[in-house]
Protein backbone atom coordinates (compact mmCIF):
# COMPACT_ATOMS: atom_id res chain seq x y z
CA UNK A 1 0.00 0.00 0.00
CA UNK A 2 1.30 3.44 -0.85
CA UNK A 3 -0.67 6.51 0.02
CA UNK A 4 0.20 10.15 -0.27
CA UNK A 5 -0.92 13.37 1.33
CA UNK A 6 -0.46 16.84 -0.06
CA UNK A 7 1.32 18.83 2.66
CA UNK A 8 2.03 22.37 1.55
CA UNK A 9 4.20 22.07 -1.52
CA UNK A 10 5.62 18.73 -0.44
CA UNK A 11 4.18 15.35 -1.27
CA UNK A 12 4.50 13.28 1.90
CA UNK A 13 4.00 9.53 1.53
CA UNK A 14 3.92 6.40 3.58
CA UNK A 15 7.51 5.15 3.57
CA UNK A 16 9.01 1.71 4.02
CA UNK A 17 12.05 1.08 6.17
CA UNK A 18 13.76 -1.63 8.19
CA UNK A 19 13.20 -2.09 11.91
CA UNK A 20 14.30 -4.54 14.60
CA UNK A 21 11.03 -5.95 15.91
CA UNK A 22 10.55 -7.66 19.27
CA UNK A 23 7.60 -10.05 18.84
CA UNK A 24 7.33 -11.07 22.49
CA UNK A 25 9.22 -11.76 25.71
CA UNK A 26 12.44 -13.73 25.23
CA UNK A 27 11.98 -13.80 21.46
CA UNK A 28 14.89 -12.91 19.16
CA UNK A 29 14.67 -9.53 17.41
CA UNK A 30 13.97 -9.85 13.72
CA UNK A 31 14.66 -7.30 11.00
CA UNK A 32 11.39 -6.48 9.27
CA UNK A 33 10.28 -4.09 6.56
CA UNK A 34 7.68 -1.76 8.06
CA UNK A 35 5.54 1.09 6.78
CA UNK A 36 5.67 4.45 8.52
CA UNK A 37 2.76 6.84 8.08
CA UNK A 38 3.26 10.51 7.28
CA UNK A 39 3.46 12.71 10.37
CA UNK A 40 0.12 13.97 11.69
CA UNK A 41 -0.39 17.41 13.20
CA UNK A 42 2.31 18.21 15.76
CA UNK A 43 4.34 15.12 14.84
CA UNK A 44 7.63 14.70 13.00
CA UNK A 45 9.05 11.72 11.10
CA UNK A 46 12.76 11.09 11.64
CA UNK A 47 15.18 9.12 9.49
CA UNK A 48 17.05 7.20 12.19
CA UNK A 49 20.80 7.23 11.60
CA UNK A 50 21.98 5.57 14.80
CA UNK A 51 20.32 3.72 17.66
CA UNK A 52 20.99 1.06 20.23
CA UNK A 53 19.32 -1.23 22.73
CA UNK A 54 19.41 0.32 26.21
CA UNK A 55 18.80 -1.38 29.55
CA UNK A 56 15.08 -0.46 29.42
CA UNK A 57 14.79 -2.07 25.98
CA UNK A 58 16.57 -5.13 27.36
CA UNK A 59 13.91 -5.39 30.08
CA UNK A 60 11.24 -5.39 27.35
CA UNK A 61 13.08 -8.18 25.50
CA UNK A 62 13.39 -10.17 28.75
CA UNK A 63 9.68 -9.72 29.53
CA UNK A 64 10.48 -7.93 32.81
CA UNK A 65 8.10 -5.01 32.13
CA UNK A 66 4.36 -5.60 32.27
CA UNK A 67 1.79 -3.99 29.99
CA UNK A 68 3.95 -4.12 26.85
CA UNK A 69 1.88 -4.52 23.70
CA UNK A 70 4.03 -6.73 21.50
CA UNK A 71 5.19 -6.57 18.78
CA UNK A 72 7.26 -3.50 19.57
CA UNK A 73 10.11 -1.65 17.88
CA UNK A 74 12.86 -0.90 20.36
CA UNK A 75 15.67 1.65 20.22
CA UNK A 76 14.14 4.83 21.63
CA UNK A 77 17.59 6.27 22.32
CA UNK A 78 18.39 7.26 18.76
CA UNK A 79 19.66 10.08 16.59
CA UNK A 80 18.66 11.03 13.10
CA UNK A 81 17.51 13.64 10.60
CA UNK A 82 14.05 15.19 10.52
CA UNK A 83 12.55 13.72 7.33
CA UNK A 84 9.14 15.44 7.35
CA UNK A 85 6.94 17.44 9.70
CA UNK A 86 3.23 17.58 10.40
CA UNK A 87 1.04 20.63 10.46
CA UNK A 88 1.71 22.95 13.36
CA UNK A 89 5.35 21.97 13.83
CA UNK A 90 7.31 25.22 13.88
CA UNK A 91 10.49 24.46 15.85
CA UNK A 92 11.97 21.78 13.54
CA UNK A 93 12.47 21.62 9.79
CA UNK A 94 13.26 18.71 7.45
CA UNK A 95 17.01 18.15 7.27
CA UNK A 96 17.69 19.14 10.88
CA UNK A 97 19.77 16.71 12.93
CA UNK A 98 18.22 15.68 16.24
CA UNK A 99 18.21 13.02 18.88
CA UNK A 100 14.96 11.57 20.17
CA UNK A 101 15.38 13.19 23.57
CA UNK A 102 15.36 16.65 21.95
CA UNK A 103 12.56 16.12 19.44
ZN1 LIG B 1 16.44 3.85 27.13
What does this structure look like?
By secondary structure, the protein is mostly beta strands. The chain has one domain (4-99): Alpha-Beta Complex (Quinone Oxidoreductase, Chain A, domain 1). The protein has 1 helix and 8 strands. The protein has one helix spanning 55-62; strands at 4-7, 10-13, 15-22, 30-36, 44-51, 72-73, 78-85, 97-99. The strands form 3 sheets. It has a 3-stranded antiparallel β-sheet, with no helix packed on it. A 3-stranded antiparallel β-sheet has the order 5-7-8, with no helix packed on it. A two-stranded antiparallel ribbon has the order 1-2. Strand 1 (4-7) and strand 2 (10-13) form a beta hairpin. It is elongated and about 40 Å long. The two termini are 28 Å apart. Zinc ion binds at residues 54, 56, 76-77. Keywords: Acetylation, Metal-binding, NAD, Oxidoreductase, Zinc. This is alcohol dehydrogenase. Residues 41-96 form the Alcohol dehydrogenase-like N-terminal domain. Its EC number is 1.1.1.1. It is an enzyme of class 1 (oxidoreductase).
